[in-house]
Automatic annotation (TrEMBL):
Protein name, as recorded: Integron integrase
Domain Tyr recombinase stretches: 103-319
The family this protein is said to belong to: Belongs to the 'phage' integrase family.
Organism: Luteimonas fraxinea
Keyword DNA-binding: yes
Length: 324
């Protein structure tokens, strides 16, 4: 008799059937494990909404997690009960979701962006330039494949962005030479991997089975490959992944400090700055929405609140007083 798979293995299997990202899978497994341990290793079938509420309350009061983190934990537990265990949730409405504060994003001025980029060099400078020049998210840039860079049309195809949608973004002309060099470098790395008996990159969904040779084709390789081969946690295969996000995050932080920028700028700040500077230049908001890949226009409209208009165009009454 074959033993039933363990609960966390069932969670992983359900995540993969639904094509959830590896990051979402890891987050859900982590929260579900933490929930079980916090309740004395009781099986979730033996718990209910009161246990879920108590767990979320401890996260908020004792651990002081952010609202987004608390809601992610709730999403993981709802996924467990609904999709993995197939349990009805009559208590779902009683579980209160944390209200996320709506904050105005940090945006750099054009001068600050220039200072930041000048303080960087090499691959990380190219990546930071792509984030600002295209509005791509950090992981979208790192997961960029060679075939999706179109120099002739001067555009980049962003595959499987947030929400699973593809979109086109402009390829900045000033980055084209560096991007060509980076793609050539990735080609040399790939050739070496092939000689060593590797060179098969991870492909999404069932593409590897449908097109057995595609994983070794140059066009499917990452533009920014990692320095070393590693074991893929999804299937245990030895592959070359893309550059880890921490490399660029550390480089941006170091450059910010060297450039003397006091704002708490991050990689995502470059995306915010891309959108805001386009608005300042008179670009229509619908176009910016499409470039950013926002499903809802209201998400894009937050950038109208950070335009450099001196307090939304209002002149302070203090400045109307006669000089002392």
């Amino acid at each position: 008799m074959v033993a039933a798979p363990r609960l966390l293995d069932q969670v992983r299997a359900c995540c993969r059937v639904r094509h959830l990202s590896l990051r979402t899978e890891q987050a859900y497994v982590g929260w579900i494990r933490r929930f079980i341990l916090a309740n004395g290793k009781r099986h979730p079938r033996d718990m209910d909404g009161h246990d879920v509420s108590a767990f979320l309350t401890v996260l908020a009061t004792r651990h002081r997690v952010a609202a987004g983190t608390q809601n992610q934990a709730l999403a993981a537990l709802l996924f467990l009960y609904r999709d993995v265990l197939g349990v009805e949730l009559p208590w779902m409405d009683a579980v209160i979701r944390a209200k996320r504060p709506r904050r105005v994003p940090v945006v750099l001025s054009v001068d600050e962006v220039q200072r930041l980029l000048l303080a960087m060099e090499g691959r990380t400078a190219l990546l930071a330039g792509l984030l600002y020049g295209t509005g791509m998210r950090l992981m979208e840039a790192l997961r960029l494949r060679v075939k999706d860079v179109d120099f002739a049309q001067r555009q980049i195809v962003v595959r499987e962005g947030k929400g699973g949608k593809d979109r086109h973004v402009p390829l900045p002309e000033r980055l084209a030479p560096s991007l060509r060099d980076e793609i050539a470098r990735a080609g040399h790395v790939h050739a070496g991997d092939l000689e060593a008996g590797h060179g098969a990159v991870w492909l999404p969904y069932a593409l590897a089975r449908k097109y057995p040779g595609a994983a070794r084709e140059r066009g499917w390789q990452y533009v920014f490959p990692a320095q070393r081969l590693s074991r893929d946690p999804r299937d245990g295969m030895i592959r070359r992944h893309h550059l880890d996000e921490s490399v660029l995050q550390r480089a941006v932080r170091s450059a910010r400090l060297r450039a003397g920028i006091l704002k708490p700028a991050s990689c995502h700040t470059l995306r915010h700055s891309f959108a805001t500077h386009l608005l300042e230049a008179g670009q229509d908001i619908r176009t910016i929405q499409a470039l950013l890949g926002h499903k809802d226009l209201s998400t894009t409209q937050i950038y109208t609140h950070v335009l450099n208009r001196g307090g939304l165009g209002v002149r302070s009454p203090l400045d109307r007083l006669p000089a002392a």
